[in-house]
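re the bet — no i am not wrong, look at it urself. input seq straight from the record:
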Amino acid sequence: MKHPNKKPKIQCQRCGEELKPGKEVWLELSNTDGNYYTEIPDGHVSQGGFSFGTACAKAQLKETEIAKQKA
C-alpha cells in the first residue's frame, strides 16, 4: 500500500531522469502531428501534458521546430 502523503515521482519523458517537484517543464503532445508544444496549436488534438527536464524540453521543442520546417 502506498503512503497517502507520499508524492508520486515525476520523470522526464525524454531521458527518464527523476525530476524535482516544481522544476519540471510540461509539454503537450499533439495527436495531430506527433510533436510536443508548450501550447497546443489551434486545430490540433492534445494527447495531454508530459513532464520534461529543462534541457530535454528545449531539445524536444527544437525537434518540433525542425519537424515543422520539413512539413
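see?? The first helix runs from residue 54 to 70. told u. also The helical segments are 54-70. so pay up
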